[in-house]
């Protein structure tokens, strides 16, 4: 399998010299993509820093899926910005798709579950000004920005069906992490479990197992939806970025 992040591609029969990918697909600095991705990384980092400043329990803060997924976004987008600015090939869709899925989970769960009083798992509370700004950055700005980058600044067709279940490794591992952390903390500790649907004290182990199955299936459906949409969405990049000219011929 060819590494999509590799800067060279071998053409011709075995033993032929490696030909730089730039000889096949013209590459160049992509300043707009680089600047946008740097801003997304900065937004994620700013939200985390603001939350950290206003937090009296950093261990609890960094146990949240929200913070962890935004760390993934900050690292991924900073890396992608560097590659776009230095005219290197784009990151592997396996990596960018994982970051997109995780931050999409963060945004959707927050807006439709944790901020929804009718969901049964709401976490509405009074927030300080710093918390309010951080909340918007981490739950709204970064998910929307990641979706925009995927739809407008990224070529379609990179996500594969096998990626959908591979991306679930982290959300599935987060479940035992949250339970283990809660088991190690004393009963009654504030924020013992990061989210209401993972709170053993409220729902018991059987209840949270059922919640985990429901959320896990929903996350898999979301991963499949992103994969399928990536394969059918139009290519919005400029015609000058195409492999060949606009003249006749099958390769565009």
UniProtKB/TrEMBL annotation:
Keywords: Membrane, Transmembrane, Transmembrane helix
Cleaved signal peptide residues: none
Regions that span the bilayer: 32-50, 62-82, 94-114, 134-155, 167-186, 206-229
Coiled-coil regions, chain positions: none
InterPro entries referenced in this protein's UniProt entry, alphabetically: Pr6Pr-like (IPR049713)
The name this protein goes by in its record: Pr6Pr family membrane protein
Organism for this UniProt entry: Streptomyces blastmyceticus
């Amino acid at each position: 399998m060819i590494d999509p992040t590799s800067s060279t591609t071998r053409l011709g029969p075995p033993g032929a010299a490696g030909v730089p990918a730039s000889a096949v697909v013209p590459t160049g600095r992509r300043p707009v993509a680089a600047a946008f991705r740097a801003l997304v990384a900065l937004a994620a980092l700013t939200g985390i820093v603001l939350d950290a400043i206003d937090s009296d329990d950093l261990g609890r803060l960094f146990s949240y899926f929200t913070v962890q997924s935004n760390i993934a976004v900050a690292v991924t987008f900073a890396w992608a910005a560097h590659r776009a600015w230095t005219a290197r090939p784009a990151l592997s869709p396996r990596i960018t798709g994982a970051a997109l899925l995780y931050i999409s989970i963060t945004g959707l769960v927050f807006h439709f579950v944790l901020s929804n009083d009718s969901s049964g798992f709401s976490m509405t509370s009074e927030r300080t000004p710093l918390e309010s700004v951080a909340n918007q950055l981490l739950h709204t700005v970064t998910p929307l920005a990641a979706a925009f980058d995927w739809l407008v600044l990224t070529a379609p067709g990179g996500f594969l069906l096998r990626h959908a279940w591979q991306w679930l490794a982290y959300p599935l591992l987060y479940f035992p992490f949250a339970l283990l952390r809660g088991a190690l903390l004393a009963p009654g500790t504030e924020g013992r479990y990061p989210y209401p649907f993972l709170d053993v004290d409220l729902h018991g182990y059987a209840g949270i197992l059922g919640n985990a199955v429901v959320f896990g299936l929903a996350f898999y459906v979301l991963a499949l939806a992103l994969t399928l949409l990536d394969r059918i969405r139009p290519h919005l990049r400029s015609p000058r970025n195409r492999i060949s000219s606009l003249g006749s011929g099958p390769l565009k």
